[in-house]
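Reopening this one. Same input as before:
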Amino acid sequence: MLVLTRKINEALKIGEDVTVTVLSIDGDRIRLGIEAPDEIRIVRKELLEEIQETNQLATQSIYFLEEWRRSEKMFVQNSFMKLREMTENIEAKDEEKK
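Same output, byte for byte:
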């Protein structure tokens, strides 16, 4: 990690296209201005981490939803099979009575 000391209105360059300028200092808060081409995405690290966590949770939710749907489908299929067996048993008993 490179550590630099900069004063207000001093800047640093990152590569050819990115300039970071110290705009103001107020206690423990520093305002930075970042000039970069439109194709370079600039996102606060904590926001990026939150987005990644949300995406991961969404992926897990999709997996669990698919598993739930699969288990529900199996439950319905098993219920129909049991209902069919019960119906067949009732019909067989009716035949025996005749």
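So the earlier flakiness isn't reproducible anymore. For the record, Strands lie at 11-14, 18-26, 29-35.
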